[in-house]
Amino acid sequence: MSTNPHNPVTEKQKMLANQFYQHLDTELTQERDRAAELTYDFNQTRESDTQVRQAILSKLLGAQGEACEIKPPFRCDYGYNIELGHRVFINYGGIILDCNRVVIGDDTLLAPGVQISAAYHPTAYEPRRQKLESAAPVIIGNNVWIGAGAIICPGVRIGDNTTIGAGSVVTKDIPAQVLAVGNPCRVIRQLEPHSPS
After folding, report:
1. Which one-letter DSSP state was computed for residue 88?
2. DSSP of 10-31, one letter per residue?
3. Looking at the annotation, which residues are catalytic?
4. Segment holding 112, helix H or strand E
């Protein structure tokens, strides 16, 4: 069986290559079920169960740095495509549809209700009827702050030291060290390194 990313064979390889894939594939369904079981267990923990939470996250996530924290409830599709840097904080109600890589850099903070989606569906209805979908990586830099209820769309890159305003819908790349807000999200101004706001 080929493992060449330019010639994907399995539905999982197609998914990670940002090609149309059949999400009802047996392997992918089993992996989503595993993630659902782990996130269910994670979401039932008490605040004092820090070691239990870390043990579950070590099974669920592809990678995580030191001193990361995720507040329940948290949901994801696969878990193994999520890579967290050091000191990442994901507040209550975080959702990451990690059908492709989702990388979150060091010291990045996600406010309550942030949604990150690598997954997307074709706009043509016939492929949707065939249950086909695609997924593009999402890369978020270091020291980023994403406000409450923001939505990060497939294929987006957000540069280091940037702030995304609450409720924003990020449909395109956002550069480093800016304040960006709105739907669609757009750059409002450059940020100074030591500016209080």
Report:
1. -
2. SHHHHHHTTS-EETT-HHHHHH
3. 121
4. none
The pLDDT assigned to 193 comes to 81
Give the other-Cβ count within 10 Å of 144's Cβ. Answer: 24
State how far the Cα of 120 lies from the Cα of 113, in Å rounded to an integer.
19
72 touches 93 (CB < 8 A): no
How far CA 143 is from CA of 1, 38, 106, 136, 184, in Å, comes to 40, 28, 6, 22, 22
Contact 140, 105 (CB under 8 A): yes
What is the Cβ-side half-sphere exposure of residue 192, based on CA atoms within 13 angstroms?
Answer: 4
Q: What is the pTM of this model?
A: 0.93
Closest CA to 179 of 192, 169, 171: 192
Burial class (CB in 10 A: 0-12, 13-18, 19+), 9: exposed
Classify residue 61 by burial, with Cβ atoms within 10 Å: 0-12, 13-18, 19+: buried
Residue 120: name the closest of 99, 94, 142 by CA.
Answer: 99
DSSP state of 41: H
> Which of 43, 79, 45, 75 is CA-nearest to residue 63?
79
In this predicted model, what pLDDT tens digit does every residue of 68-122 receive, in sequence order?
999 999 999 999 999 999 999 999 999 999 999 999 999 999 999 999 999 999 9
